[in-house]
Structures are given as structure tokens and as C-alpha cells.
Amino acid sequence: MPTITRASISPPLPPPPPLNRRHLLLTGLAVSFSPLPLPIPAAGARGLFQMPPPRLSNRYFLVRAGESEYESLGIINTNPGMGACERNCWIWPSITQRAYQAAEIIASVNGVTRSYIVPEYSFLDARGLGAFEGKKLEAVSEVYASDSISPTIKPPPTDDGTPNESVSDVFVRVTQLMSVLETQYSEDTIVIVSPDSDNLTILQAGLVGLDLRRHNDLSFAPGEVRFVDTSSIPTYKQPASAVYKCFNPPNCN
User: How far apart are CA 89 and CA 55, in angstroms?
Assistant: First the structure.
């Protein structure tokens, strides 16, 4: 039979200290405010859109609204890229009058009903040029000169509430638009109609991995229609230098 010695008996534990209301309150707060681990989103989740994209779920055409309804109609009828809505064809115009009129003409030419026209209320606003708003077109060259230095330079501000957007500001908007479209549709044809060229050039630069400082090399004429080919830049708009590739826009330094 085993013998119990004094050394084998552990001394009794001291009694716990009495709890008071203050201790209980502090303990409860510590538990309540303990940060919970956040779920890590899967990088490949659909809707997490990155520029340039490895692939696109849809077929895209970029359209700059014409200076007039007549001009838009002429361009759309003669451009070989359109008339290609063999799949579901959705038209996303800016809510500006010229862009929406162009969308209606595109729909009519391609046999698309108005129910497939989706007005876009924020992501396709014309780029805000601040103090350059309302000036002659020649003055815009100063904006593009700044764009070529850095995509974060904004046009000079104004006190009338006109936005003054940098290339990076516009890039955020058009990336959000593409995230919505790539999440909402699959294997459809989507026509994006913008009231200005900058929305489209910045979007196309991001899609093809071109340095955003060179976005103006892809400028759209009024009424121009362009198919989005993420593997190449249209030859007639090829930048002067091929070194301006960007695989993490808007950080292209």
C-alpha cells in the first residue's frame, strides 16, 4: 500500500479575492471591446476587380458621345465595331443628355430595346477640370501636361463647386464601374457611353496596363466607338514609347 507523506500533499490554494462591481464592469468592457478576427476575402472572388484584369467576363465597347445626334448617328453607322450585339447587349450611358441620346441611337441601330439602357449616375460623369472649366479647348493641354508628370496632380480648384479631378480620381471611378459590370453580367456585350474622352482613355489604359500618365495617347474623337481588347492597344493609337507599361495602376512609377 502506498504511503502518503507530508511532502506529497500540496498546500491548499489561497481563496480568490472578493469581486466588486468595479472589477466586474472593467472585465465586461474588456471582453466587449476585444477585436474579433476579420475574415480575409478570397483574392479570386468575383467582383474584386483589379487593373489590369487577367480576363473579362464580358465583351466591351467604349463610346464617346458625339457633338450632335447627327454626328453620333453617322459614326455609329460607319464604324465596323458596332452591330455586334449577338448576345445580350447592355448600354450604360452617362446621364448627360448627349450620352443618353447616343445610347438611344446605338440601341436603335442594333435592335436593342430601351429596357437594356442603364443610365449611370456617378461613375461616368465627365472629368471635373476645376478652373479650366469653360475655357477654350487649347487650355486643356495644360491639364494633359500635368497628367504626363503624375496621375495624382489635380487641375486648379475653383470656388463654384466644380470638381477638379486628377487621373487617379477618375481611375477610381471607372474601376468601380468595371467592378459593378463584371459582377452583374457574364458573357454579355456592354457598351459604355461617356460624355468625354478622359473617362474612356483612363479606363482603357487601366485595362491594357498602360501607364496612366499616357492616357491621353488613347484619346477618343467625338462619336468614336472602340472595342476593348485587353491584350493590345489599337495600332492607330499606339503610344510613342512602349516602355510605359503599368501593371499596378495608378502606381506606375
Answer: 19
pTM of the model: 0.71
Site of grid cell 477618343: 220
Q: DSSP per residue over 48-85, as a string?
A: ---SS-S--SSEEEEEEPPSSHHHHHHHHHH-TT-S--
* Residue written as grid cell 457598351: 191
pLDDT band at 70 (very low <50, low <70, confident <90, very high): very low
Q: Which residue has the cell 512609377?
A: 253
Q: Which three cell numbers stand for residue 56?
A: 473579362
Q: Residue 135 pLDDT more than 60? A: yes
The closest alpha carbon to 157, from 134, 137, 128, 136, belongs to: 128
More confident residue, 47 or 56: 56
Is 228:204 a contact under the CB 8 Å cutoff? yes
- Mean pLDDT (whole number) for 120-130: 95
Question: What's the average model confidence in pLDDT over 193-209?
Answer: 95
Query: What are 146's three cell numbers?
Result: 500635368
The shares of helix, strand and coil residues in the chain, as percent rounded to the nearest 5, are 35, 10, 50
Is residue 177 over pLDDT 80? yes
More confident residue, 137 or 223: 223
**DSSP class per residue in 173-222:** HHHHHHHHHHHH-SS-EEEEEESSSHHHHHHHHHHHTB-GGGGGGGPPPT
Contact 227, 80 (CB under 8 A): no
Q: Which residue has the cell 448617328?
A: 73
For residues 48 and 45, give the distance between their C-alpha atoms in angstroms, rounded to a whole number. Answer: 6
Residue position matching grid coordinates 470638381: 163
